[in-house]
Amino acid sequence: MRAVSVRSPARPQRPASAELQRRRDLRRRKRVHFAAQLWSLLLLLSASAGLGWLLLRHGWLLRTPEQVQLTSRSPFNREQVISAAGLRFPVALLSLDGASLQQRLGAKLPVEDIRLQRQLWPPQLLIDLRLRQAVARAQRHTPQGRETGYVDRTGAWISRAQQQQARGEAVPALRVLGWQPRHAGTIALLLRELPPAAAISQMEFRRNGELWMQSRALGPVRFGSLDQRLPRQLEVLSHLAEQQPLAQEPTQALDLSDPERPELMLVPPKSSEN
Q1: Which of 31, 132, 224, 248 could form a disulfide with 257 if both were Cys (CB 3.0 to 4.6 A apart)?
Q2: In the chain, where are the structural domains located?
Q3: Is it the case that residue 76 has pLDDT exceeding 70?
Q4: Taking the domain 61-131, which CATH number applies?
Q5: How far apart are CA 160 and CA 220, in angstroms?
Q6: Which of 169, 127, 122, 126 has the alpha carbon at shortest distance from 150?
């Protein structure tokens, strides 16, 4: 018998126009879905921005001075700090510019370390201040004339207005004359290294570049121009101060400009500009 092949009936072909319409519908649904997601994202961002604005404007407010808290070691009272910081109530906690606050506090108060912390609940501003301790009275020349103030352990200038904020602080006995910003490093070194036996009561930076000191043990001491010999000069000063006091006349001074050859010299008269 002859084998007879049976062909399966051909599937009907989908019209090209129907396939094209299906693709168009699919693209349209994707666009609609994307647009819906985009609108949802925009609404969420708008709501977040609005909520943030409301919080900045009306939430987490500092309404009273009592919401400004100082650490226990602060030498200043709350009213002094608020006045120096220029705070006005009510103020939004999150809108405060920490750098500006630190700058204002440092300009008005004798402080060397300022730390600010925002507490959201309950809303408070925490301020930690470390006092710049005045270690010497100081004098400097300005275009307006002589100005008196103080210096701290780093040799930095403290104005009288700043120091007046630190109530109860003792007035230092040491004096620094002729202070200039470039002398701060040298002053800091001298404050650390001056021998106690010399009992220095005054440092004077003269306009000719020389350093003079007044010692209760040795009288006037000339160091001369400031250079790399200063550490050696301090060693010699310590050695001489620990010996018997020098038998020098009131018009004489100890010259340590050459620390290897200390000698007595006549005290030169001060010029009117010193």
Answers
A1: 224
A2: 61-131, 132-179, 194-274
A3: yes
A4: 3.10.20.310
A5: 28
A6: 169
